[in-house]
DNA sequence: AACAGAGCCAACCGCCGAGGT
DNA sequence: AACCTCGGCGGTTGGCTCTGT
């Protein structure tokens, strides 16, 4: 560990926390022009004060054009459960079988929806069959948990910059974009911006 | 109308393995 | 052969939003 303390001056420059739209644009733009790879160098070359890891994660989980978010379909849910039964928490492996889905999303989905349902099921049937079996059964009947599709109404990838346009009450948006009700940035917006910026 | 609790999601952290020097 | 760097993975956490009281 502790590979040298590093210059604290450099550390101070590393940004953390939610990505801003500007950062996203920079990253998208850079990758569009130079491609992915060598994330640490990429982060520096693009002028982002982020770690390579952070850039990679942001790109893979959110910015990639082919990434699909929300609306986990019953089929996908079924597949997730089947693959999880087969491989366990090998999220990246599972994600490979779900085009457009990221390991992070699947992982979150599993933890929040399915695992919760397992617990509830376990509680309901004090000792009975194992939860895994329950899932399997549900899966095979393709009737998954009652919360089977809570995401039907999932609003499209509202931009993470807390545009809050969805929730006017949350008035703590970032200054740049907060004042418009229309400031609802979708990935499409970002990509079209990127295209406009071209380079 | 205000407050509290629960749920959800994005991002970070630490570890491990692969590749390069 | 050993060391170092980078990328990838899984687990965990923090913050925001929604729902119920």
TrEMBL record:
Domain Myb-like: 11-63, 64-114
Main subcellular location: nucleus
Keyword ATP-binding annotated: no
Any GO BP: stamen filament development
Family annotation (Pfam families): Myb_DNA-binding
Localization annotation: Nucleus
The keyword Transcription regulation is annotated on this UniProt entry: yes
Keywords assigned: DNA-binding, Nucleus, Repeat, Transcription, Transcription regulation
PANTHER family attached to this UniProt entry: MYB TRANSCRIPTION FACTOR-RELATED-RELATED, TRANSCRIPTION FACTOR MYB24
Record's subunit section: Interacts (via N-terminus) with TIFY10A/JAZ1, TIFY5A/JAZ8 AND TIFY3A/JAZ11.
Name this protein carries in UniProt: Myb-related protein 305-like
Organism of provenance: Ziziphus jujuba var. spinosa
